[in-house]
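Worked example 2:
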Amino acid sequence: MRPRSRPPDDAVSTLLSCRNLTHTAGTKPLFRELALSVSRGDKIGLNGHNGCGKSTLLKILAGEVIPDEGEISRRQGLRLGMVEQFLPAKIGALGVLDAVLERIPSSERDVEGYRAALTLDTLGFGENQHRLPVADLSGGQLNRLMLARALVNDPDLILFDEPSNHMDLATLTRLEQFLAEEIRCAFVLVSHDRALLDGVTHRTLILRDEALYAFDMPYSAARQALTEMDIAAAATRADEEKKIAALKASAKRLAIWGKVYDNEKLARKAKSMEKRAARLEQAKTFVSRGSGLALTLDSRETRSNRMLRVADLTVTPPGVPDVPLFRIGELVIRPGERVALLGLNGCGKTSLLTALVGAFRVDGEDGHINFSPQAEVGYYDQELAEVAGDAEETMLTFLRRSTRVPEASLRNGLINAGFPYLDHDRRLAALSGGERARLMFLALKLNRPNFLIMDEPTNHIDIDGREELEAQLSESEATLLMTSHDRRFIDNVATRFLLVTDGRLLEIGDPDGFYADMLAADGAPASEGSRAKPGAGANEGGIASLDTGTEEQVLKRIVELEALLEADLARKPRFQKPDLQAAWREELELLTGRLDG
C-alpha cells in the first residue's frame, strides 16, 4: 500500500490545506490524490528527485497553476510570498527598489512604499544601491533581492523554490542563518542542500512515486525513516511474492491432477487458489520505483606518482591576463587524492580550473602547469557549456563527438542513464538542467578519465543524485579536483582542502573554520580550524604550512586533531578519508614529539 499523506491540521492554525490534488504535465503524471497542510510556524522542507513535480506543486500552492483535480483551501486574508528560482525577465530592466515595489499592489505603493526600502535595508542593501539596475547585480545580490520581494508584504507563508541554487558558500550560510533565526512566518523550502534543510526545517515532505511522504522531522532523519520504510516494504513484498508463487504453483498442480483424474473437487480447489493468488497480487505491498536515475563513473588506472604539478602560476580571469586573482608557488596533486577548492565567489576558483583544462587540452602543460603523461582529464563545468552544442545537436551526436566508443555502447549508455531509445535524437537545447547533467556524467563514464576536474557538479542534480555521486567518487580510484557549494558533499567526498584567500592558495585541515568565518566577514578565514597543515602536498612558496607557535597553541591543535580523527572514524567506511586521517596522525606525531622534546 502507498503511504498516505498526513491529514490537515486543526483549522484554527491552518494557513493552507490541499485535498486530492492530482496533476499531469503533458503525458507525465506528477502526483495523484495528494493531501497536505501548512500551519502557522511550520518550517517545511519539500524534496524529491528532478522532474517529480516540486516546482509545479509550489506554483499550485501559490495559485499560479490550476491542478487537474483537487481542492485547495487558503485562510481568509492569507498573505503569501514566493521566492522564485529565477527572476522574471521583465524585472531585469528595473532598479532594485522598483523591483521590490513591483510586488506591492499599485493602489498601495504611495502609502506602503516605505516598506520596500526598509526591507532592502534589512537585507543589506544600502540606500545608495536602491537605484542599481537589477541586471547589474551579483548572484548573491539577486538572491537577496528575490527574498526582499517575498518579504515586502509581511507574508504569513513563503514558498522557496531552490533559493540555494548558484549561491556561494558565504551567501548560503547567511541564508541558513536568516531562515533559522530571523524569519518568523511559516515557509515551504524546496532545496537539494541537505545541510540547509537540516539546519532550518522541522517537517519534511518527500514527493516520490506520485505520492507525498510526510515526516515531522528534518531532512536527514526523514530520509533515514523513509529508507527504513522502504526496507520493511521490500521485505514484506518479498514474502508476499513467495506466498503468491507458492499458491500459483499449488493451483497449477491441482488443476493438472483434477484434469488427469477427472476430479471436479480438485479443479474447483485449483480455481479457488488462483483467485486467492490474484487477490494477493492486487493487494501487494507498494515498493518505491525510486528516482529511475543513476549517476555512475568509471576510471582507468594510472601508475604515475603524481597527476598534476602547478608551479609559479598567477591565476587570472580567462582572456584577462592583466588582472591577477591569486598566485600558486607550487601545488602537487597525487593519484587518488580528492581535493576541494574553497573560496568566496569571484576569488578565482573557476578561473584556475579553466586554466588547467585549457593546458591539458593543448599538450598537457604550459610551462607552469604539468600533467602526468598518463593523465586522462574529464571536465564537468558548472554551466554545462560542454553539453550546449549548436541548435541542431542531439544527445546522440553529442556523445559521438565527445566519446570514443561504439554506437551500440552509446545507445546502451543512454538507456541505462534513463533516456528511452525514442529520445536519443532529442536536441540538447530541449533538455532540462538535470538531463544535461546526466548526459555529461554519461560522457565522463564512457571516456573513463582518471583525473576529474569538476566545477560545481551538484548544481543540477537532486539529493538522490548527489548521494550516488558521492558514493561513486568515494569508491573510485580517480583523482579529483572540485569546487562545490554543497557543504555535505564536500565533507563526504574530499580528502584535501585548498583555500583561495588574500591572493594566495592555502591548504587547510578541514573546511569547518572556513564555513564559520564566512559569517563574520567577507575576507579570509582566520579561525583555528582553518589553519594550514603540513604534508599531503603542501610546498614552500605555494601552499602555506603550519606555524606550530606556543606550547598552548600546540596543545590546542592536538585536541583539535584528535577530535577531527575521532569524528572521521565515526563515519561510515565509504565516507571516511584515509589520506586525511594519515595526515592528521602524522601531524599529531610531530606535535607530540615537540612537546616531549
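Residues 1-11, 521-549 have pLDDT under 50 and may be disordered. The chain is about 40% helix and 20% strand.
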